[in-house]
Amino acid sequence: MLKKIALLMMLAMLLVPAAWADEAEVEAAAPAEEVEAVQVESADEQAPEAPDELTLKENALNEKAAELEALAQSLAQRESALSKNEKDFAVKASALAGKTREISGTSTMLLGRETQVNAREKEIMSREAGLARREMTFAQESQKFTEASTALAAREADIAKREADLAAREAELNAKIGAKEAADKLSEREADLVKREAALTERENTQNRLGELEKELTAKAEELKAREEEVAKREASATEQHKNIADAIKELNEQTAETAKKDSALADKAKELEARSKKIEEDNSSLNSREVALVNREKDASTKAAEVAELESLIKELPAFDPNNSTEAAMILTYNIPAQTRRDLIAMQRSAYQKYSANRFTQALEDYTNAYEAAPEANYLAAYWAGLAAERLRNRRDEAIQWADRALAINSEYRPAQELKRRLESRNAPQQRRRSK
Predict the structure, then answer these.
(1) Which of 89, 66, 107, 84 is nearest to 2 (CA)?
(2) Which of 34, 66, 96, 415 could staple 30 via S-S, CB 3.0–4.6 A?
(3) Confidence (pLDDT) at 45
(4) How far is CA 129 from CA 121, 138, 292, in A?
(5) pTM for this structure?
């Protein structure tokens, strides 16, 4: 019973009860501190008719709340004392359970104590009734406060309406700003398209020039083939001469065999002729080896001259060509690799670019990868274009950054790869910040 009373008192402190009279239901009041804060705000926003009266009411409510808190604390202390007495009673009752026959007089004393406890319960109940009357008075004061809060809510609704009007005007301004930004983006896109058309025209011109260079290289290759055939004819002629000399030696040997018995001097001459023929053969073989070395040197010299002429003609045709800034296939001609490898890389670059222009980015990435692997020590152009193709594919930006790093590892001054890496890292930065949040 005492525990239930204490719980009721605690609830009375935390909650504001409804009106006890026959009036309409009133919302639960806030705790004493919130009531005080709201009353202060409402007093500031009310018309300054009677601020002293509101202050007095507020002070009275605070005093009543303080009294309720003190009363609750006192009741809690008494409840703890009663609980302690009940525990003592239970201990003594358990001790006396076995000795009821010997200490029957003790039961009378316990009954007297129980009577005292009941008297204390009645006293607590009477104090609880007084507390309920005080709470009724507090509820009436709370009703007045509720009326003031209603007026304050009406004023807040007016302020909310004004904020909605401001939000509508702000939305209209944002719509106008968005339309202007869309027009600016459209203009930028048109300018970008014009630049891309100009770049495409320049690339087509470059491809035409490279086609002419390929024709010239084909003609030079045919000329070298004709020279190789001439050398082969000369080698065949030398072989025929060797054969004739061998036949003459054989014939001479037969003649010396037939006349060996008749003239020993002829045998000596035959031996001398044989030694001279061997010397002639050795001289011919040495001459052939020197001739082959000379032909190889002529081939190397002609190849290097063709490469130099090719580079000089390309530089003359493209005066603004910059290996650190250009993205054209002609830049492959500046690589320090064999001429045939350069021609193969140019063909692979053209094939990959056709797929890239047709928005077949996956196949273009495969071709650019093959072109890079064909010369990983020099082909930073293929690495750059592979990064562009990976950028166009979904969820491949990290791979695109790796391709940009490969291009910069070969040529750290290559500005297109630097720009590609900077652009990709700036796009990845917001995603990383969102993930960290």
Answers:
(1) 84
(2) 34
(3) 46
(4) 12, 14, 130
(5) 0.32
